[in-house]
Amino acid sequence: PETLKTATLVLAVGEGRKLGASAKAVDDATGGAISAVLKRGDLAGKVGQTLLLQSLPNLQAERVLLVGAGKERELGDRQYRKLASA
User: Fold this and answer.
1) pLDDT tens by residue, 31-43
2) How do residues 25-74 score in pLDDT, each as one tens digit?
3) pTM of this structure
4) Taking the CA of residue 5 as centre, how many other CA atoms within 13 Å lie in the half-sphere pointing to its CB?
5) What torsion, rounded to 10 degrees, do the Cα atoms 21, 16, 85, 9 define?
6) Which candidate, 9, 31, 35, 38, has a CA 20 to 30 Å from the CA of 50?
7) What is the rounded distance in angstroms from the CA atom of residue 29 to the CA atom of residue 82?
């Protein structure tokens, strides 16, 4: 995902500020920019939370939209609809 040229790259963040494989790859490419934002508490990862980041270094994407995915084991139809609508 870090080499994808797009207007907005959407990445899921689990509850407790957990990054999946794609988000970790983007975080590594940006020198930990996503982790730094999460450590400040700007996004907890609860279902439906969103945070738009702009101009991250070393990415082809113009923006990165972080979307809270909640707890992985609880991600059912209802949570997935809320995540998608966010």
Assistant:
1) 999 999 999 999 9
2) 999 999 999 999 999 999 999 888 999 999 999 999 999 999 998 887 66
3) 0.85
4) 0
5) -40
6) 31
7) 29
